[in-house]
Specification:
Largest sheet: 3 strands, mixed
Number of strands: 3
Structural class: mainly alpha
Shape: extended
Strand order of the largest sheet: 1-2-3
Strand content: under 5%
Oligomer: single chain
């Protein structure tokens, strides 16, 4: 009978194990056999420990003796290892020192570059400041030459400004816009009108009794220019006045020439035909032509002469079809010949009617029939 592995065995063959009987279960009682077995184990362990302690002492003594006999070799190996380690450390220290020096140099170079850039920036702002300072000082110097209107002279100044363009009050300067305004009398009536504004003024005021204002002939503008040039020459230190005047005249002539040349664009002066020709030339600017008609360079005797269309007519094979232009041309010639032949066969009355453009319906129909018949033959 097979026993199942689920249920436990009812008997215990290992009598040295603790008892499972109900009366002796888990009492902690150790059988005499277990006591003997523990004693054997302790003895065995003691023997092994004594043996291994003995071997440890033997091996220690042997190692010390071998080391003592091979001490020179050990010391030699140790020295080699020590020197190699020291050399490695020195190499590492040198590389670290080199890296440190490079880092220091880079940092110093960056500091110098920073200082240079700061100097450039400072110089730039100094230039800006001195530029402003020069202009400010220049304006301050001009301020000393300005005739400021003081409070006590204010009313007189206003009266003078208001009477500036009253007729008869001496030379009249141009206003702030560079124009010459109309001149009035003391009551504000227009008395004189400058020549440029006369047309508009009289058109707007047809009943005006104003006259055309003409400035005095003894205008001091040229005299003032001469005085200015003389003063500049004196400041420059005795340069020839004639040379300065000639330079001014040359500049004036150059400016006049430039203004005359810039009057009208070139394309405005071209006719339509010229513009078309120029446009076609610009479109065809990259076309050189075939090699048969290329230009013969001077001194180039090897180049063959360019063939002409008159000297070398085109030849066609006997059975080949003519090109379109030649076929159309021959057809056109045949048509013209047959039409002339048809016209020659018309009667004098019909020709007269055709020439007089008074053809009757009957003549027109007959002409149409005849000409249509002839064209059908074509």
């Amino acid at each position: 009978m097979l026993r199942s592995f689920i249920s436990r065995s009812p008997y215990r063959p290992y009598y040295n194990l603790p008892s499972k009987q109900p009366g002796r279960m888990l009492t902690g009682f150790t059988t005499p056999y277990r006591v003997w077995m523990w004693k054997q184990g302790e003895t065995w362990r003691a023997v092994h420990e004594a043996q291994f302690e003995h071997l440890r002492r033997v091996y220690r003594r042997q190692w010390l003796e071998s080391f003592r006999s091979n001490a020179d070799e050990y010391i030699h190996k140790y020295n080699i290892t020590k020197s190699a380690q020291i050399a490695q450390w020195e190499h590492e220290m040198e590389s670290q020192e080199r890296q440190r020096r490079e880092t220091v140099q880079v940092s110093q170079g960056r500091e110098l570059l920073k200082q240079k850039h700061l100097d450039l920036l400072r110089e730039y702002h100094e230039r800006q400041f001195f530029h402003w300072y020069e202009r400010a000082s220049e304006r301050l110097q001009y301020m000393t030459k300005i005739n400021y209107v003081t409070p006590e002279n204010l009313s007189a100044h206003v009266e003078k400004e208001l009477s500036k363009y009253v007729s008869g009050n001496g030379p009249h300067p141009l206003n702030f816009a560079g124009q010459m305004p109309v001149l009035e009398d003391e009551d504000g009536n227009v008395v004189e009108v400058p020549e440029g504004e006369a047309k508009n003024h009289f058109a707007e005021h047809p009943n005006s009794k104003a006259t055309i204002f003409k400035p005095l002939e003894s205008d001091r503008s040229s005299e003032m220019i001469d005085e200015f040039v003389s003063a500049q020459v004196a400041e420059m230190g005795g340069v020839d006045e004639g040379s300065v005047t000639s330079v001014l005249d040359e500049e004036t002539d150059t400016q006049t020439t430039v203004e005359e040349e810039a009057r009208v664009a070139k394309s405005m002066e071209l006719s339509n035909e010229d513009a078309q020709v120029n446009k076609r030339a610009y479109i065809d600017r990259g076309k050189i032509g075939s090699k048969a008609f290329r230009k013969v360079k001077a001194g180039d005797t090897s180049a063959p002469p360019a063939p002409s269309s008159e000297s070398q007519p085109k030849k066609f094979k006997k059975g080949a079809a003519l090109p379109a232009e030649f076929a159309n041309a021959s057809l056109k010639e045949n048509r013209e010949q047959k039409f002339e032949k048809t016209v020659s066969t018309l009667s004098p009355d019909m020709m007269k009617a055709i020439s007089g453009n008074k053809t009757s319906d009957f003549a027109q129909g007959k002409l149409k029939r005849q000409t249509g018949k002839q064209h059908k033959d074509l």
